[in-house]
From TrEMBL:
<dbReference type="Pfam" id="PF02371">
    <property type="entry name" value="Transposase_20"/>
</dbReference>
<dbReference type="InterPro" id="IPR047650">
    <property type="entry name" value="Transpos_IS110"/>
</dbReference>
<protein>
    <submittedName>
        <fullName>Transposase</fullName>
    </submittedName>
</protein>
<dbReference type="InterPro" id="IPR003346">
    <property type="entry name" value="Transposase_20"/>
</dbReference>
<dbReference type="GO" id="GO:0003677">
    <property type="term" value="F:DNA binding"/>
</dbReference>
<feature type="domain" description="Transposase IS116/IS110/IS902 C-terminal">
    <location>
        <begin position="2"/>
        <end position="68"/>
    </location>
</feature>
<dbReference type="GO" id="GO:0004803">
    <property type="term" value="F:transposase activity"/>
</dbReference>
<dbReference type="GO" id="GO:0006313">
    <property type="term" value="P:DNA transposition"/>
</dbReference>
Length: 109
């Protein structure tokens, strides 16, 4: 995953979290019109990165202690399973972006 992120997203660590999420296609796009509040969906961005992060989120939401707590908190709030997985994928991307910006390694506590 790390090699793919670095290879496919050279911007990693150099731009903000919202911009990197939009590049990966993990930022919600609203479909509002006038007074109507439309649905939010994710689309666009780099499909390869989005699909890799989704697969990583499947594993991380069950095996990583920190992300498992995050996923369970969202499930308790009644969020659908796929919404939880996209939130975990976005969280993974934010962690990777921060680690690259600070030139640090992932440390589990």
């Amino acid at each position: 995953l790390c090699a793919a992120l670095i290879g496919e997203m050279p911007e990693l660590g150099t731009i903000g979290d919202k911009q990197i999420a939009a590049l990966a296609g993990l930022a919600p796009i609203n479909r509002d019109s006038g007074r109507m509040d439309g649905r939010r969906s994710i689309k666009g961005g780099r499909y390869v990165i989005r699909s890799l992060l989704y697969q990583a989120a499947l594993v991380a939401s069950t095996h990583n202690k920190t992300l498992k707590v995050f996923a369970n908190r969202l499930k308790e709030k009644g969020k659908p399973h796929k919404v939880v997985l996209i939130a975990v994928a976005r969280k993974l991307l934010m962690i990777a972006n921060t680690l690259m910006a600070k030139n640090q390694l992932w440390r589990t506590t």
